């Protein structure tokens, strides 16, 4: 495969599915348009697959489980994952280009975060399974040892904001533990998943261990979740979709991991390191145009520094300029689609109706040329809203943050916990005792102190309340993607 073939999809061609090690068109012959959100023009066409395509992918996966893949050793699977990592890494620039085109994110972000983290995910789980150990519990009269067995074929369903990164976060541990997968990326960002399929083909991965079926969530996604031979679902996406996935999968007793939405608090105390906090909070608010599930969209600021903080924050955010995602210098890209931009814009309008004051943004930037039609929205800062207003409690998933002053630690915690979500939080303070106290009280799966999005792949990743069920990362992923089997031997 020439390096440039990864980019062929970005020229209007119909991207195939990948089933049983072969690139195949969808059986129904229908297709969907995949758009470049920065220009609102067609990038590629993807198959609008149906339940027959899912059936073929599940059959291929089950055949692989009965074949050589089912008999593979941990070391062989670790080698395969390392080969995937190395091949993506050798094509990092092309992957970054493809991801930036498909999502509208700045290429500098795809190059420095999305693709390197996808590489790291494959490498990490290669190492984890290569060095895996299992439990042994000895009794006076017996010995217990616990095996971790593959579960079967998993459905992996992923969203559009971090396409390759999140797909690799599921694919790597699923394969590491000896399962097969049927992956369905978001229909809005299918390209790097197809490029990943090309890598599996290129390195001669056993046919059927990794299958990819493109299409709509309500059709392909739903068929995967409903399929009786899919043993588990790892889903990342919106809370309402997660509810639908759970309602379908739970009565079938499938293993289920749900990574859902968030409305994350960023809590700034007066004793924070002011300059570092401005920098960190700007990133936490607007990375990937605010389209990271972990972004802090509610900014709670201790009243004694509120005015000073807000004016420095607004000045710093004002240095983010929407521009061509493919330009190395761009620090703020497009949103995922014009439809999503309209939704974000609707929330800015609602904020005004709810009594908010727009301190920055609140409008589409004026871009020219082919970017004029793109899904751009300026970074937006809104003050004066009640913490229980709709804009301050519903997930917007875009470049809007709301600012809320607080007087006491207890009040900050009450505001932080006053939403249905509980994914991530960040706390900014130099007081170590306060950092421990607040982190322990905030209802959140993850809390960062004086930093944001610092990731150690071993730690549990996931949310509570309406932000999801289960944890990914390190042994949590390895356990989710395997069944423990205890064997007790009478001595
Ligand atoms: P979405 O729920 O609309 O779609 C996610 C995936 O589910 C897509 O592949 C979609 O095609 C598929 N899908 C849709 N309906 C389905 C159905 N009935 N059955 C099976 N699959 C179906 O979410 P999105 O708009 O793509 O992504 C944004 C959301 O994802 C936000 O809410 C964000 O917070 C969340 N998210 C969460 C995390 C996390 O780790 N918690 C990470 C990234 C994004």
Characteristic terms for this protein:
single chain; 491 residues; alpha/beta; Aldehyde Dehydrogenase, Chain A, domain 1; Aldehyde Dehydrogenase, Chain A, domain 2; 15 helices; binds nicotinamide-adenine-dinucleotide
Please give a structural write-up.
The protein is of the alpha/beta class and 491 residues long. It folds into two domains: 282 residues, 3-Layer(aba) Sandwich (Aldehyde Dehydrogenase, Chain A, domain 1), CATH 3.40.605.10; 193 residues, Aldehyde Dehydrogenase, Chain A, domain 2, CATH 3.40.309. 38% of the residues lie in helices and 21% in strands. The protein contains 15 helices and 22 strands. The chain has a seven-stranded mixed beta sheet, sandwiched between helices. A six-stranded mixed beta sheet has the order 9-8-7-10-11-21, with helices on both faces. A three-stranded antiparallel beta sheet has the order 5-6-22, with no helix packed on it. The longest helix has 24 residues. It is globular. The termini are far apart. The site of nicotinamide-adenine-dinucleotide (NAD) has 29 residues, from helix 7 and helix 8.
């Amino acid at each position: 495969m020439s390096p440039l073939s990864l980019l062929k999809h970005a020229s209007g061609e119909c991207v195939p599915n990948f089933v049983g090690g072969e690139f195949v068109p969808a059986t129904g012959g229908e297709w969907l348009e995949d758009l470049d959100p920065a220009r609102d023009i067609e990038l590629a066409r993807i198959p609008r697959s149906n339940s027959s395509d899912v059936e073929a992918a599940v059959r291929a996966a089950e055949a692989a489980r009965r074949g050589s893949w089912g008999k593979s050793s941990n070391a062989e699977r670790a080698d395969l994952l390392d080969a995937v990592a190395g091949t993506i890494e050798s094509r990092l620039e092309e992957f970054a280009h493809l991801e930036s085109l498909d999502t509208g994110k700045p290429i500098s972000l795809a190059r420095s975060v999305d693709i390197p983290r996808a590489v790291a995910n494959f490498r990490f789980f290669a190492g984890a399974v290569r060095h895996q150990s299992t439990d042994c519990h000895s009794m006076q009269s017996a010995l217990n040892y616990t095996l971790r067995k593959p579960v079967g074929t998993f459905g992996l369903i992923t969203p559009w904001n971090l396409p390759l990164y999140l797909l690799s976060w599921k694919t790597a541990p699923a394969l590491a533990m000896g399962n097969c997968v049927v992956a369905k990326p978001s229909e809005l960002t299918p390209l790097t998943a197809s490029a990943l399929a090309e890598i599996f083909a290129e390195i001669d991965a056993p046919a059927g261990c990794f299958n990819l079926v493109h299409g709509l969530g309500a059709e392909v996604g739903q068929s995967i979740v409903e399929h009786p031979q899919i043993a588990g679902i790892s889903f990342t996406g919106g809370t309402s979709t997660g509810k639908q996935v759970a309602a379908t999968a739970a009565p079938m007793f499938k293993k289920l991991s749900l990574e859902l939405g968030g409305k994350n608090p960023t809590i700034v105390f007066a004793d924070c390191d002011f300059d570092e906090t401005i920098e960190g909070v700007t990133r936490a608010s607007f990375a990937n145009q605010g389209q990271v599930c972990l972004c802090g969209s509610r900014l709670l600021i201790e009243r004694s520094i509120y005015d000073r903080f807000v004016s420095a924050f607004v000045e710093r955010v004002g240095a983010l300029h929407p521009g061509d995602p493919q330009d190395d210098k761009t620090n703020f890209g497009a949103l995922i689609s014009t439809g999503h931009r309209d939704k974000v814009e609707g929330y800015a309008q609602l904020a005004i109706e709810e009594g908010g004051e727009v301190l920055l943004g609140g409008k589409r930037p004026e871009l020219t040329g082919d970017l004029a039609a793109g899904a751009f929205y300026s970074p937006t800062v809104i003050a004066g809203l009640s913490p229980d207003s709709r804009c301050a409690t519903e997930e917007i998933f875009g470049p809007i943050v709301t600012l809320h002053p607080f007087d006491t630690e207890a009040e900050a915690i009450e505001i932080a916990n006053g939403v249905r979500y509980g994914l991530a939080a960040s706390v900014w303070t130099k007081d170590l005792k306060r950092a421990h106290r607040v982190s322990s009280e905030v209802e959140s799966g993850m809390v960062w102190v004086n930093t944001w999005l610092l990731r150690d792949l071993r730690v549990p990743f996931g949310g509570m309340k309406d932000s999801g069920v289960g944890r990914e990362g390190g042994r949590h992923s390895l356990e989710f993607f395997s069944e423990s089997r205890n064997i007790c031997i009478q001595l």
